[in-house]
Structure formats: C-alpha cells, structure tokens
Amino acid sequence: MKVLTADEIKQIKEMMTMTLLGQMLMEDGMEKGEFKNMQELVRDGLLSMETAASRKHMTVEEFLEKLKELGLS
C-alpha cells in the first residue's frame, strides 16, 4: 500500500471537491455529523428530542427516521 504525500492528498481533495460526486459525499458527511451531534445532545439531556427535530424543521417521527436512515440509531 502506497502512502500518499501531503501534496498528493491535497491534489486528490481538490479534484474531489470539483466533482459532483465529491460534493455530494461531503454534504452527506456534514449532514450525518449534524444529526450525530444533535443526537448526542439529546442523549446527554442537553436538548429535547422535540427541540432537536424542530431545529431541523422536522417532526419527532421524521427526525427519528432520519437518524435510522443515517445509521445513527
């Protein structure tokens, strides 16, 4: 397995961000991160499930379904 240099990684990153697929993957990752953070706040008792869902403009049922869809529940 070849280890990439910092320059090679930077070049690959630039190429990925220029593609639609790369952009979609980044957006999916950011969305999953947002939902994971909210899920953790709910779990820790710092945010209610209702408030978390409301912040994402969803019902609680929709929010829970999205967590399942993202593999977070």
Number of spatially distinct domains: 1
Helix content: over 70%
Can you tell me the residue ranges where pLDDT is under 50 for at least 5 consecutive residues?
A: none
The chain-level mean pLDDT equals 91
Kindly, what is the distance between the CA atoms of the first and last residues, rounded to a whole number of angstroms? Answer: 34 Å
Residue share in β-strands? under 5%
Rg from Cα:
17 Å
Shape: elongated
Structural category is mainly alpha
Main beta-sheet annotation: none
Give the SSE order as H and E letters.
HHHH
- How many alpha or pi helices? 4
* Strand element count: 0
Summarize the structure.
By secondary structure, the chain is an all-alpha fold. The chain is built from 4 helices and no strands.
Task: Characterise this structure.
It is a single chain. This protein is an all-alpha fold. The protein has one domain. The chain has four helices and no strands. The N and C termini lie far apart (34 Å).
Provide the descriptors you would attach to this structure in a database record.
mainly alpha; single chain; 73 residues; elongated; 73% helix
Question: Topology, pairings included?
Answer:
Blueprint lengths: L5 H12 L2 H24 L5 H7 L4 H10 L4
Helix pairs in contact: 3-4
